[in-house]
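During the reporting period the student researcher (J.K.) took over the structure-prediction task from the postdoctoral fellow and processed the backlog of single-chain submissions. One of the processed entries is reproduced below for the supervisory committee.
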Amino acid sequence: MIRDTSAQHRMVEVKPNRERRLLLIGGAMALLAVLAFAMPGMLRLFFADASVSAPRLAFATVERGPFVRDIAADGKVLAANIPTPCATYRGAAVLKVRAGDGVKQG
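J.K. obtained the following structure tokens:
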């Protein structure tokens, strides 16, 4: 006969997790602080009457003239030492010149 296991059962007391509660309260307070700090800036986005002060504005007359497309920038220029030849049809493509070689049509 199988014995009853009810004598082995005992109630486990679940203690409230204080660390988790403090973490949630701290997170909520931090979120409220961030919202309070960011609220004036967000409100300025929705109300355009005070978005730009008048002394910061500048006006100019538009005139017809040459269009300049120059740009000044910093960067690196890299040259390809071994260009990859490719062809539109099947077959072999061979590169017979190197960078700096003189070439002519034909």
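The committee noted the following: The chain has one domain: 16-100.
J.K. will present the remaining backlog at the next meeting.
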